[in-house]
Design brief:
The protein is built from 13 helices and 2 strands, in the order H-E-E-H-H-H-H-H-H-H-H-H-H-H-H. It is mainly α and about 325 residues long. It has one domain. Helix 1 packs antiparallel against helix 2.
């Protein structure tokens, strides 16, 4: 009972810090002019402070340090998260060149790759480190690209954390990070959903992407069915980001140029509300989270878990492509790479 009470206090504290950090930074950002002004490629209609995810970043950095400090890479992981989120914070305050932001992401995510390289059974760890590094950078950017609608990526991160907390052992350090992720997202959501008083900002989306990479890479290192199941709650973000990026590269667009090609952007631009879109994406993720938890509880064989994950992604890609015909791109042509 005491352990449960302590866990509840810690989760409430994480939620409180995320809320207070976002609220205080929104006031500062409003006074300093760190706001997103409406323009033709944005989906909001009023100037809104950005950078509210600074409280989430603070919570995650603290919990990551505490969870992995004893005999683990707590300092390097927490430092990497701060570097990654810090690059986002700089960009929220004053636009950062894409190359500089990518460099900071590469530096910040390197501790993740060193801690949990993919395929560690290889004779040399270098390919596994490089693969894990690219995956971590990709997840940070996927969360950043998908952060353009009230509550969308915060709800996705909340469900990811809930899924990982359910499938990992209670004593696992990743479980502590997962619960902190859930609590921090719950704390921030009232500031951003259904009405946005402050935007998550790159500081928040980078922190959430870093946490997603940490949970995925640690699950991969554990092996078994868990390595496959953790991919399921990432599917909504990765499918829309991946299909959109593939389409833009095929058309010769500059990948980092601002656009409204994501499915969620097209749907909102067509007149559907932010809340409806965020809840639709969350509904998909809630279903696959339930599937992941059921498979974990039933002791699913790893081969079955990977088959299910592959099936979910296959259905998701087909659904995304079909929805793209229903809500086509309506923006004028962009400059080409």
């Amino acid at each position: 009972m005491m352990a449960i009470d302590l866990a509840l206090v810690l989760c409430a504290s994480c939620a409180g810090v995320a809320f207070a950090g976002g609220w205080l930074f929104a006031r500062l950002a409003g006074r300093r002019g760190w706001v997103d002004a409406p323009e033709h490629r944005r989906l909001h209609r009023t100037p809104t402070p950005r950078g509210g995810g600074i409280g989430i970043a603070a919570v995650l950095a603290t919990v990551v340090f505490a969870a992995y400090a004893k005999g683990g890479p707590g300092v390097s992981l927490a430092g990497g998260l701060l570097v990654t989120a810090g690059a986002g914070l700089v960009d929220d305050i004053r636009p950062l060149a894409p190359a500089a932001k990518l460099f900071a992401q590469a530096v910040g995510t390197l501790p993740l790759a060193l801690a949990w390289p993919l395929a560690p059974q290889l004779a040399t760890p270098v390919p596994g480190i490089v693969a894990a590094w690219l995956l971590a950078i990709g997840l940070v950017n996927a969360w950043n690209f998908m952060d353009g609608s009230n509550g969308l990526v915060t709800l996705q991160a909340l469900l990811l954390g809930a899924c990982v907390a359910a499938v990992l052992p209670a004593t696992d350090a990743g479980g502590a990070v997962a619960w902190a992720l859930v609590a921090a997202c719950i704390g921030f959501l009232p500031l951003n959903f259904p009405r946005a008083r402050v935007f998550l900002g790159d500081v928040g989306s980078h922190a959430l992407g870093f946490a997603a990479a940490l949970l995925l890479l640690q699950a991969a290192a554990r092996g078994g069915a868990t390595a496959a199941l953790v991919w399921l709650p990432l599917s909504a973000v990765l499918i829309d980001a991946g299909v959109t990026l593939g389409g833009r590269l095929r058309r010769g667009c500059i990948p980092w140029q601002a656009h409204r090609d994501h499915l969620y952007q097209r749907i909102i631009a067509a007149g559907v509300g932010h809340s409806a879109v965020a809840l639709a994406f969350a509904s998909w993720t809630l279903v696959v989270v339930g599937l992941a938890v059921a498979l974990a509880a039933g002791g699913a064989d790893p081969s079955l878990a990977w088959a299910v994950a592959g099936g979910v992604y296959g259905v998701g890609v087909v659904t995304r492509l079909a929805a793209g015909y229903r809500w086509p791109i309506t923006e004028p042509p962009e400059s080409k790479a």
